[in-house]
Amino acid sequence: MDRFNFVLTVIHPALEDYLLSLPTPKSDEAFVFPSLAQRDASALSKHFGKIMGRAHIEQRVIRAKSGAGQSVNALSFHSLRHSFTSILANCGVAEEVRMLLTGHTTRAIHQRYSHHDLGALRDAVAVLPRITAK
């Protein structure tokens, strides 16, 4: 008997609604976005850059291409991973849950993706009791 490996993926209800609105594929192995299925990571990044350009979102290079490495834009497809983690953190979602959702296996990596906004930090300090002189 064949054994199937399943991966549980939690998605936002709006994305679920969109995916359910798509035509049912003829095969269980069909890609959700066939036009993107055969692209490598750099091609996907370039495609995302074009989408950003059409939306008039300025692309700012934060690290220029050097040697065999590639340039890094301030906003990229990978930025969504940082945004996802940071938004969850700033909404008070526990680190353990954020790590499960992002697939991060170490706190060190996860912390590089978590960017706390100033308001969340101020709110955290505001819960401390006042110290008064007697």
Condensed summary:
The protein is mainly alpha-helical and 134 residues long.
Give a written overview of the molecule.
By secondary structure, the chain is mainly α. Among the domains are: 41-74, no CATH class; 78-128. It has helices at 13-21, 34-37, 41-54, 79-90, 95-102, 107-113, 118-126; strands at 61-63, 72-73. It has a two-stranded antiparallel ribbon with strand order 1-2. Strand 1 and strand 2 form a beta hairpin. Helix 4 runs antiparallel to helix 5. It is extended. The chain starts with 12 loop residues before the first helix and ends in an 8-residue tail after the last helix. The mean pLDDT is 82.
Quantity of strands, as a count? 2
Q: What's the SSE pattern? A: HHHEEHHHH
* Low-pLDDT windows of residues: none
Annotation field: number of helices? 7
Mean pLDDT: 82
Biggest sheet: strand arrangement: 1-2
Q: Main β-sheet: number of strands, strand sense, barrel status?
A: 2 strands, antiparallel
Q: Given the C-alpha coordinates, what overall shape results?
A: extended
N-to-C terminal Cα separation, in Å?
76 Å
